[in-house]
Inverse folding.
């Protein structure tokens, strides 16, 4: 099995290589890949499929190179080499993707599990992901998928599932939508897009909604593409840290592109719903000062954005850390409320009354939840049935 092979690789000490110093990085910089990573990527056995969102250069100094414009790394890729995700390659002057059709985790979930609390509450979704990621999160709970290309480098054992087959599964299970999740959907964008288009061709799935569960490290070009083709109805974005140093050290990415994505998606709120989540890691992003800065940023975009604080559990390269202290999660929610966030939640716990939705004006209970189960939902339209206050929710 693929995961057994990955576990063996981890036992041998496989690990993400060090990234370049953020101060010396630029949008045009070459991907900082070790020889081991280059060999892994070039031996990757995913289906080679034409990629979207890339450009070549007339400048002789950049002859043969391609700039990938899918994610915020903006990798400059030489012929025969790959970007930081390891699954986008320059094949003789054309960009191809290597993980198209490689599916993991096909599952039926309540939408609350993603979590989306303010988009189509109580609906049922089909979830799946594909190997690889543009981040290298040391705490990743899905590392056996997201870091598969980096740790093992072959997808020969990964199931091949076409977009048509996924559409058929969605029809068979009578789901309401599809979530592209588990790993970063930006990095399997072509596969996700083809799945959306395959669903549109079938009568039974033509009206499904499509969701990205994303780290937010995508480009304006990608978001413009999504808007032009009306591919997505909602995006949930991870705002992992509010400081650059831990962002780069733990994920290999940067803070500003994620903040930019949150601002851009919010501007599209009439067409794309957005929620934000923060995984609270002890000693990394759980101080009152850090929580306050994060909440102030989200509020500066809009106090109407649903904000989720999620409990960390040790995994991957952070097994030495303890789970998040429940008191810190409760403190984070209170800080969010005091700052003026209208909808603040706590996830990954069994705490009572921390996942319910209340009217921010009259405090009427609008949606009562028990983890992923809706116990009652009073919303039939996006306003409080008691006082009429407008609620940021897609019913």
């Amino acid at each position: 099995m693929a995961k057994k092979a990955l576990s063996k690789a981890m036992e041998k000490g496989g690990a993400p290589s060090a990234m370049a110093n953020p101060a010396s990085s630029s949008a045009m910089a070459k991907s900082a890949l070790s020889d081991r990573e280059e060999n892994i990527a070039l031996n990757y056995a995913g289906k080679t499929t034409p990629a979207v969102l890339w450009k070549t250069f007339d400048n002789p100094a950049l002859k043969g190179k391609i700039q990938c414009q899918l994610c915020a790394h903006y990798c400059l890729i030489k012929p025969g080499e790959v970007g930081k995700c390891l699954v986008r390659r320059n094949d003789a002057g054309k960009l191809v993707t290597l993980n198209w059709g490689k599916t993991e985790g096909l599952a039926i979930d309540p939408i609350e599990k993603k979590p989306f609390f303010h988009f189509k509450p109580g609906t049922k979704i089909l979830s799946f992901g594909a190997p690889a990621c543009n981040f290298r999160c040391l705490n990743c709970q899905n590392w056996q998928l997201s870091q598969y290309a980096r740790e093992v480098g072959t997808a020969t054992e990964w199931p091949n599932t076409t977009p048509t087959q996924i559409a058929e599964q969605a029809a068979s299970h009578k789901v309401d939508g599809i979530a592209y999740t588990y790993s970063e959907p930006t990095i399997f964008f072509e596969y996700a897009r083809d799945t959306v288009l395959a669903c549109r061709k079938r009568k039974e799935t033509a009206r499904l909604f499509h969701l990205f569960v994303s780290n937010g490290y995508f480009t304006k070009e990608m978001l413009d593409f999504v808007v032009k083709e009306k591919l997505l109805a909602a995006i949930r974005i991870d705002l992992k840290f509010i400081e650059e140093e831990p962002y780069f050290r733990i994920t290999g990415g940067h803070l500003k592109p994620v903040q930019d994505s949150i601002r851009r998606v919010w501007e599209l709120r009439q067409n794309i719903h957005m929620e934000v989540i923060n995984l609270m890691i002890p000693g990394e992003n759980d101080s009152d000062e850090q929580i306050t800065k994060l909440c102030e940023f989200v509020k500066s975009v809009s106090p109407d954005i649903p904000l989720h604080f999620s409990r960390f559990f040790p995994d991957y390269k952070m097994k030495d850390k303890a789970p998040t202290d429940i008191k810190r999660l409760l403190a984070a929610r209170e800080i969010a409320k005091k700052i003026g966030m209208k909808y603040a939640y706590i996830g990954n716990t069994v705490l009572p009354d921390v996942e319910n939705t209340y009217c921010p004006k009259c405090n009427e209970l609008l949606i009562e939840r028990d983890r992923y189960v809706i116990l009652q939902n009073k919303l039939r339209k996006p306003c409080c049935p008691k006082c009429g206050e407008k609620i940021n929710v897609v019913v």
The two ends are 41 Å apart (CA to CA). The chain is about 25% helix and 20% strand.
